[in-house]
Design brief:
Growth Hormone, Chain: A, disordered N terminus, mainly alpha, 24 helices, 553 residues
């Protein structure tokens, strides 16, 4: 496979896709080849078709540009196919991470989908009490994530995943079998957040280390698809277990409810994760030439690491961006904390909330590549802004009334918005993180995301008690109107603060191995043959804005 010829990309470069066959070309190389006539015909002709600066384009210019655009699309599709093939030549660790991502995501989504319902039905908690437990679970995940940021960087990928899977398996089994409310709440506040902090972030770090610039964007795209595939499986399986074991399952004189069986499947998936880790993950990384080299975990002083990261402007821009996404993230957490109880109360105990939940990942799997291909030339911040507006408006469909079609339109609109913005926010924290400091960067900057659970936990309990109680009059339309209004805060604030957080209007800096690395992403005002600025890797640039998502859509 390493000797197979590689298609030229639109810059005229050969080989970036295959491991070890040829080093990446630089921006200087590309510009030199452009001047010398070595640029691919599609790009060269496209540049020649641009009018001189100051002249208004004619119809002839637009026709020429259109034909070259079609050639460019075909070239991108060929290049995309070739880069997907490079994933097959990646180290086995990349595919182990994908397998673990599926198992981890199933464990998370199936558990989160039934958690508040489980606390109410198994322990008699009120809506508000169950909501606050759900919220505090998120807060403890934040604290655990910050602490584990240091541990991840020093332990490395393999041991972090192994410890996280072991703790997660034992914790989920205790949650499934114990009858003690005190023990359940204690585990939700301690062991479970610890296991997730040692598992979920390290997988994203693994994707970064097991790929290089030639295929990293596609590796992250597939990573995102695997997560949604797991969510797609989790929803219907929860419904199936609730329907088949509606009266529970009796084993050896002990009876287990359908919700406890869901927790058992979550524990089994985590146990398989542990077995997969033991199969063999090495501490390695892939350099920009595609060569596999050993990787030494960062053993620097954790306090010094933290001080250094907190001094970097790039980190604070990332943290602000993550904070502004909190509003739109609220909708996704209401799918866990609010939707199941709302549907069982308005449509009956057999309401298929798991199947409704599965609409989102099903659409995402198909929409993400289509939207990505259609919006290749649109800058990342604009995509995130548009997608946030679409997702933010989605809850208002349910304000029409308690109809299945309204809930389906809510999920479809939410999914379209997610497909527009979410892929663009997935790699940003990894791209600007200093080498060996990814865990600390990710845990500190993603802390605002876990405040979403606290907000939704308290908010969901109050909304259900006030507008959708188990008995008595209900006004669920008002409940969803309030949810929609709060989610709309995100796009509005991002629009108002666009000049602060949009990367093409500012510079970011990052520290790698003690060396400060700066990057200016200013955009030219006029795109002409004289002023065109060709990026080093346009594919990566189109998806660099965003932040890491800890199983939180």
């Amino acid at each position: 496979m390493d000797d197979e010829p590689v298609e030229e990309d639109e810059w005229g470069d050969v080989g970036r896709a295959r491991r070890g066959t040829m080093p990446l070309t630089t921006r200087k190389d590309r510009n030199a080849r452009e001047v010398g006539g070595g640029v691919d015909g599609g790009l060269k002709s496209g540049l020649e078709s641009l009018p001189p600066e100051g002249r208004v384009p004619t119809r002839k210019d637009w026709r020429a540009g259109s034909s070259h655009h079609d050639v460019g699309i075909r070239a991108r599709m060929v290049r995309a196919t070739e880069r997907w093939r490079t994933l097959l030549d990646a180290p086995r660790e990349l595919w182990i991470i994908y397998a673990m991502k599926f198992l981890s995501s199933y464990s998370y989504f199936s558990f989160a989908l039934v958690l508040t319902l489980f606390l109410t039905e198994e322990y008699g908690m009120s809506d508000q009490a169950a909501g606050w437990v759900y919220g505090m679970y998120g807060v403890m995940s934040t604290i655990s994530g910050v602490v584990c940021g240091w541990i991840i960087d020093s332990m490395g990928v393999r041991w972090s995943l192994a410890v996280g899977a072991l703790v997660g398996t034992v914790t989920r089994l205790f949650l499934a079998f114990t009858g003690s409310k005190t023990l359940t709440v204690s585990l939700l506040y301690t062991a479970l957040p610890l296991s997730e902090s040692l598992g979920i972030p390290i997988m994203t770090i693994g994707i970064k280390r097991y790929t290089n610039a030639s295929n990293r964007t596609y590796a992250f795209s597939f990573f995102y698809s695997v997560m949604n595939l797991a969510a797609l499986v989790a929803g219907p399986l929860v419904d199936l277990l609730r329907r088949v074991f509606k009266g529970g399952l009796t084993v050896g004189g002990d009876s287990y409810s359908a919700l406890r069986l869901v927790l058992i499947t979550s524990a089994l998936a985590t146990f398989v994760m542990l077995a997969v880790v033991c199969f063999g993950i090495r501490e390695i990384e892939v350099d920009e030439n595609g060569n596999v080299t050993s990787f030494e975990p960062n053993q620097a002083d954790p306090w010094e690491q933290t001080r250094r990261v907190l001094r970097e402007p790039a980190f604070w821009r990332l943290a602000l961006f993550t904070l502004l996404l909190v509003g739109v993230r609220l909708v996704f957490r209401h799918m866990d904390a609010t939707l199941p109880k709302y549907m069982t109360r308005e449509f009956g105990e057999d309401a298929p909330f798991g199947l409704i939940y599965a609409i989102n990942p099903f659409l995402i799997i198909f929409l993400v590549p289509v939207v990505g291909l259609m919006t290749k030339g649109v800058d990342s911040f604009s995509m995130i802004l548009y997608g946030s507006f679409i997702s933010g408006v989605s809850p208002f469909w349910v304000c029409i009334g308690n109809f299945y079609w309204a809930i389906i339109l809510f999920m479809v609109t939410l999914s379209v918005g997610e497909a527009v913005y979410s892929p663009r926010v997935y790699e940003y924290s990894m791209e600007i993180s200093g080498k060996g400091e990814e865990g600390l960067y990710t845990s500190l900057s993603s802390a605002p995301l876990f405040t979403v659970k606290l907000i939704v936990g308290g908010m969901s309990g109050w909304l259900l008690t006030r507008f959708c109680p188990e008995t008595g009059p209900r006004n669920s339309r008002a409940m969803w109107a309030i949810i929609g209004a709060t989610s709309f805060v995100s796009p509005i604030l991002m629009l108002l603060l666009r000049d602060v957080i949009e990367p093409r209007k500012s510079n970011w800096t990052a520290i790698e191995n003690g060396r400060t690395v700066s990057s200016s992403l200013d955009t030219p005002q006029a795109i002409t043959k004289e002023s065109l600025d060709i990026p080093v890797d346009s594919d990566l640039q189109s998806t660099n804005l965003g932040t890491h998502s800890l199983e939180v859509k």
